[in-house]
Design brief:
With 392 residues, the chain is of the alpha/beta class. The protein contains 13 helices and 14 strands. The strands form four sheets. Strands 6-5-4-7-8-11 form a six-stranded parallel sheet, with helices on both faces. Strands 1-2-3 form a three-stranded antiparallel sheet, with helices on both faces. A three-stranded antiparallel sheet has the order 12-13-14, with no helix packed on it. The chain is globular.
């Protein structure tokens, strides 16, 4: 209730919902693990798990939107046999809808998708959307795989110098991982393509600045051989590489993660929506639909699913990835970490948080509270991240 997560979960004209608390439990555990790992890397870091998860929503002024994501571009739709999340994040996603549904190009995209989903199994809706590059996932249908290990390795001395992190990632999960490693003393080099910069630059500049403050910025023309050679030199000097691309995108640049790890001994953190191996490696995802894929949703008063907070699989994955990367560095490196947002969300959804007797009630002051064991806890809005401190 105090974290801001409930404030963002439920219908806008109804009570906030307590489901999805496993996200906060998992985030607090990974934040505590990262604090201990960061102290071994070079600099202890206290992570406010609630701010990491819900701070973006505080900056954006988001609230509860039920089966529409906090950002407004993903929706939970009833399908013939369950529920499916479809994410129209980009103009090309909306343009692909007629091909997804095989219907009238003049119909509003969401109307067309709703009619199609109502008569189609959820898995088929998601598969048709993914064939056209539209992020989509059936609710919690795929089993989760084990997550990378997290914890201070016994008997290993700390590294002789701060690690060098080359950050090829974009949006939220990877940059949050880079942000945390940078706070722990790592030197972070953010690399962007001249022709395809980080899409988060088009969002809230305060949020982007919080994630990337203090990082070196490098822009490369990856369409040229010289730009690809410069990228390879950066990778050869990295202790940690972060990326959030589908594996085929890097292969088109002549880069194979496994070969880089074998050749340099670095820790390579590959953040994807559904995993990097096999058909899953071709699927696209954002934080809201990845959370649905992992079953990380809340239930409304009627028992139907609603989104849990704001794209929660993104920051959860960033926290887990930071802890897993620090673990691997302290354990000698030479690791390829496959971190899928769907798997991270499924792990959080499986947390046993108790609170089965929790009751959401209206207060005399016109607010909401959760009553547990006779005590009332006010539902509070999310808190924004603090602006970065200027260098001393």
């Amino acid at each position: 209730a105090a974290s801001g997560g409930m404030w963002l979960t439920g219908w806008p004209d109804g009570a906030p919902r307590p489901g999805g608390a496993g996200a906060l439990v998992a985030a607090e555990r990974w934040a505590a693990a990262f604090r201990d790992l960061a102290a071994r890397l070079g600099r202890p870091v206290e992570v406010d798990a609630a701010v990491a998860l819900f701070g973006r929503a505080a900056l954006a002024g988001y609230g509860r939107r039920g089966r529409t994501s906090a950002g407004g571009r993903c929706r939970l739709l009833p399908a013939a046999d369950g529920w499916v999340a479809v994410h129209l994040a980009r103009p090309e996603d909306e343009e692909a809808v007629p091909a997804v549904v095989g219907g009238d190009e003049t119909a509003p995209p969401w109307d067309a998708l709703a009619r199609f989903a109502a008569a189609t199994p959820a898995e088929e809706v998601a598969a048709r959307a993914q064939l056209l590059g539209v992020p989509a996932a059936a609710l919690g249908t795929a089993p989760a795989r084990p997550l990378p290990p997290v914890g201070v390795p016994p008997g290993r001395p700390p590294p002789a110098r701060p690690p060098i992190v080359v950050d090829l990632s974009a949006m939220w999960a990877g940059p949050l991982c880079a942000h945390l490693l940078g706070r722990a003393g790592a030197r972070v080099v953010k690399v962007e393509s001249r022709h395809r910069p980080d899409g988060a630059r088009a969002g809230d500049p305060a949020f982007f600045g919080w994630l990337h403050a203090g990082h070196e910025q490098v822009t490369l023309d990856l369409r040229t051989q010289g730009g690809r050679d410069d990228l390879r030199r950066l990778l050869d000097g990295a202790d940690v590489v972060l990326e959030s691309s589908r594996p085929r995108a890097l292969r088109q640049l002549g880069i194979d993660a496994g070969e880089v790890v074998a050749g340099t001994g670095c820790t390579w953190v590959s953040i994807t929506g559904h995993g990097r191996e096999g058909p899953a490696g071709d699927l696209v995802a954002f934080g809201d639909d990845a959370a649905v894929a992992g079953g990380l949703v809340a239930a409304d008063e009627g028992g139907g699913p609603v989104f849990c907070a704001d794209a929660v699989a993104d920051p959860l994955t960033g926290l887990l990835a930071a802890a897993a990367a620090a673990t691997a560095v302290l354990d000698g490196g030479a690791r390829l970490l496959d971190v899928a947002m769907r798997d991270v969300a499924a792990a959080a959804a499986g947390e046993d948080v108790g609170g089965d007797d929790a009751e959401v009630v209206a207060t005399a002051a016109g607010r909401w509270a959760v009553r547990v064991a006779g005590e009332a806890h006010e539902v509070r809005p999310p808190r924004p991240p603090r602006p970065p401190r200027p260098p001393s």
